[in-house]
Amino acid sequence: MRKFDPENERLKLVYQDHLRHAEGLDHKTIDKAMAAIRQFEESTGCASFKRFRKDQAMAFKDWLDTARSKRTGKPLSKATIASTLRAVREFFRWAAGQRGYRATIGRGDWVYFKQPLKDARAARASSPRKVPGIEQVARAFDAMPGATSLQKRDKALLAFLMLTGARIGAVASLRLKHVDMEQRHVFQDAREVNTKNAKTMNTTFFPMGEAYVVALADYLRHLKEDLMFGPEDAVFPKSEIRCGPNGFEVKGLSRDPFASTGPLNEIVKDAFAAVQLPRYTPHSFRHMLALYGDKACQTREHFKAWSQNLGHEIVAITVSAYMPVTAEAQRAIILGLGEEDK
């Protein structure tokens, strides 16, 4: 079986340029699309795209149903299959209009990548997300030590998430110049900070308790005064590894950010695990803050401001994405409304 087809590779390069410059997609999204197209090629033995027919699309769906994740070894989820089929469908829809492919790719053949309706509904279904309570965060935070530079960083990370609800990708790329403790403000500048959809955001600290502000302020003072960090240095830098008498050892903090968000995720998860709580993720803080804001805000204007502080221009995004109503809660609420009328 061939490992690649030269003509396919050339067309994929053109498509990458299309996605980046015509569609405005970022590298991460483009990489996912390329990975999906590569899976299709594997299913056909790298057959030429010029030979694409609808039976290949139908066979690819069967291939995905039996494929397994390279990371976990488990069958692919319905959501993963849905995103893969969508990416490949869009590629062939685009390819059908390209010179040299208009006459070879059958009109409408690419629609056969559509997922069965039953599976599509399953792909959109979501299981209840585990969200920490205010008290659980406080318990994990209070148990965290804060003597060394690394311990101060880890504790400040939990405090920062509590105060801002910032996405972990943005947190990992923040520089000291972006955080103003006096104004209790974070400027998520999309030109320098890895925000979602490259959107610049102004975030004011949520009123979640002075203990978190104190811990963050103490950590930032430590960076600036004790370690002589400057405005361009990372707020949450990676650990510095040096070669010592016993081999490589952690020797404090580097000035550079982590290359990925993985280590920061583990810091947060480990903090909860240390006090026998579920390993909540950094993103769960956003859900917790949305739920808390719904109860704390007394007016529609207040909740609008709360929502904007989470980075949502439209309140409906906060409500639909972060404030689900379970089937049990739905039933209880509806029955409760009936009782109130009696």
UniProtKB/TrEMBL annotation:
Regions that span the bilayer: none
Keyword DNA-binding: yes
Alphabetized GO MF terms: DNA binding
Xref: CDD domains: DNA_BRE_C
Coiled coil: none
Keywords: DNA integration, DNA recombination, DNA-binding
Designated name of the protein: Site-specific integrase
Gene source species: Roseovarius faecimaris
